[in-house]
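Good morning C.,

I know you're traveling, so I'll keep this short. The sequence:
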Amino acid sequence: MAELAPSRIEVRDLTLMYGHDTVLDALSLPVPAGKVTVLAGPNGCGKSTLLRAIRRLHQGQRGQILLDGVDIGALGAKDLARQIGLLAQSPSAPPDMSVEELVRLGRYPHQAMLQPWSEKDGAAVNRAMVGTGVDTLKHRRIGSLSGGQLQRAWIAMVLAQETDIICLDEPVNHLDMAHQLDCLDLVAKLNREAGRTIVLVLHDLNLAARYADQLVFVHEGRVRALGRPEELMTPELLAEVFEVDAAIMTDPVHGRPICIPRGRAKAKSVREIA
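The tokens, ready to paste straight into the viewer:
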């Protein structure tokens, strides 16, 4: 596949191990600027680890990650946090914290020891809450929120960070269908209207195909394939990567491919696929 746009992030031959277990195995991945990249793959394949490595929360044993051509290891912690925001899986905070207090935490990378809370900080927090629709909930305690409300509050915190790159690890996990669409429509809006570069981990292949500009199949710690959803959503690749026997159709509303699983399929080797 031709590159969608110049890459903001380049992962080059990244190997990352937990003890003796290799989680990422010489993995390489370009993340195009101003596009939505969705990482998909079976449980334990390394998707979440890759996202955390991009944010330098995990250190690889070999390889490098470049941000605009600069190794992220050369950047200060706050400098990196001003450029890449991350919402990890199942984040937690004290239940008696208010929504506004949670969102204000997103301004941490912009704070200095002797620098007071500024008008700019307040404006960023307000924009983030309005954009996610939690401004009317700002005095509510997060322990009192529904799952969808809480997830929007966490996304607001990431938006208040005002980064050009936003990484979201399974942001629709545990949400019902309506709130899944609300969340992903918000992400798509940030991409279209604000030009944000988005990297998402999603388990639902049909949602991944619907929202992705670049879809990435991660398998056994490596990028097995990447491209447009129309290129990757094939029965052969789904059988290899997900061990699923599936029919592929075109969504009559959005024109994107959709997967209809028929059952389990024996994984095929790369040689058999080729």
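Safe travels,
E.
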